[in-house]
Structures are given as structure tokens and as C-alpha cells.
Amino acid sequence: ETGVTQSPTHLIKTRGQQVTLRCSSQSGHNTVSWYQQALGQGPQFIFQYYREEENGRGNFPPRFSGLQFPNYSSELNVNALELDDSALYLCASSLGGTGHSNTEAFFGQGTRLTVV
Amino acid sequence: AQKITQTQPGMFVQEKEAVTLDCTYDTSDPSYGLFWYKQPSSGEMIFLIYQGSYDQQNATEGRYSLNFQKARKSANLVISASQLGDSAMYFCAMRLTGGGNKLTFGTGTQLKVEL
Predict the structure, then answer these.
(1) Can you tell me the distance from the alpha carbon of B9 to that of A89, in angstroms, rounded to the nearest whole number?
(2) Which of A92, B8, B26, B47 is deepest in the core (most CB within 10 A)?
(3) Which residue among A48, A92, A101 places its CB closest to the CB of B33?
(4) How far off is chain B from A84, nearest CA to CA, in Å?
């Protein structure tokens, strides 16, 4: 096990609602990144938080937002849910915000979100 | 922009045989890292092996080795002595140095190990 935990594991929401997903990073890791993985696809980078600041964002609209707390845990918030937001959401924790290319990212087990 | 291509949607291998999963990448950045992850049906991404763009030798981790051919921009994963527990989805990913921890993933290869 990696020490990265995500909650909840499964979630069903209605289109138009808002959702908050949570991630506890591995002890000592100060960077959390979030990914969306649609069925049959590879994960897509949403954004990254380093020491409570967003410092990298993928091609996702502003209704995807996040927070990182002083203990480095993180939240992903999605407003105005759409059917296409149905996916597995993965968070990964690592050490170092500027990025050493060999820094291993440890992933949680993911939250499976279904929007109906 | 960087891109990862995995051209094998599915692969079958017999138990105890070796298998190679293909990965090619595209980037103009000279400094990057290449990763392979295993994703069982439970969903968690399990790190397998890493290769840096300046590493002179191919990476190895137990039964996993990475066949890194920089000029061809390929980073194939070789799994030796396949086991039934190796059945899973396998993803190749790249991260640029200085690009934060953003990983760019390929579309994955579904590996099935048969008796």
C-alpha cells in the first residue's frame, strides 16, 4: 500500500450537482496532483498543488477546482456536474513541487464518480 | 507538448513466458523521466519502473526491465517469467523535469496471463 488514501471510493451524483473528493497524501509528501481517468483511457492531469498553492493545471475548465491544506491533504471540487465527468479520479502524492523527473508519484486507489 | 503512444490495446502471454509492452514518446525537451505503472481492476496505479532521459543503463526492477532506445524515442517494458497476478492494465507515462509532477499517460495495454 502507498499510504495515499482517497474518499469516498464510489459516488453517484446527479447532473448539475457539486462534488468534493478527498485525498490524504503520503506522510512527508508536499505535492498532490489530481487525474481524471475516463473508462478505457489513460489518466489525464487536472492540476497539482504544492505547499497549498496550485502550480500546474491541465486542460480542464474552471469548474474543476481544488485545495491543499497545511497537512498537505487535498480536495478536488467539481461544480455543475456533467455526464462526461463520470470517471475514476486519482490523486497522487510526491515530494517536491518543481519536479525532479525521477520523483516517484504514489497513487491512491481512486474515487469512482458516476454522474446520472 | 509531450505525447505517449501505446499501440497494443491488448496482449496475451503464457505463464512463465516473457512479454514486451511497447511505448513510444514524443517530446522536444531533453530532460524527462519515463515511468511504467500497473493498474489492476481495483483502480490503484502501482509504480513499476523508472528511466531517466540521461540514464546510461536500462532500468531493471526485479522481473521488470525497461528497454530504453532514446534515438527511437521508445521505452518498452519487458516482464520476465509472467505470473497470473501480472494480468492488469499497464500504462507508460512521461514527466518533464521542471514540469512539476505532471505525468502524461498513454492509453494503456491490457495484459492477460494465461495458464
Answers:
(1) 22
(2) A92
(3) A101
(4) 18
Q: How far is CA A39 from CA A53, A89, B109, in A?
A: 30, 11, 13
CA B53/CA B69 separation, integer angstroms: 10
Distance CA B10, CA B78 (A): 15
**Which chain B residues touch A98 with a CB distance below 8 Å?**
98, 100
Written as tens digits, the pLDDT of chain A (116 aa) is 668 999 999 999 999 999 999 999 888 888 899 999 999 999 999 999 988 999 899 999 999 999 999 988 999 999 999 999 999 999 998 876 544 455 678 899 999 999 99
Cross-chain residue pair A92–B47, CB shorter than 8 Å: no
- Minimal Cα–Cα distance from A113 to chain B, Å? 13
Taking an 8 Å cut-off on Cβ atoms, the answer to whether A102 and B52 are in contact is yes
> Number of H helices and number of E strands within chain A?
0, 11
Q: Please give the C-alpha separations between residue B93 and each of A43, B38, B76, in angstroms, as whole numbers.
A: 10, 11, 11
Place of cell 496482449: B11
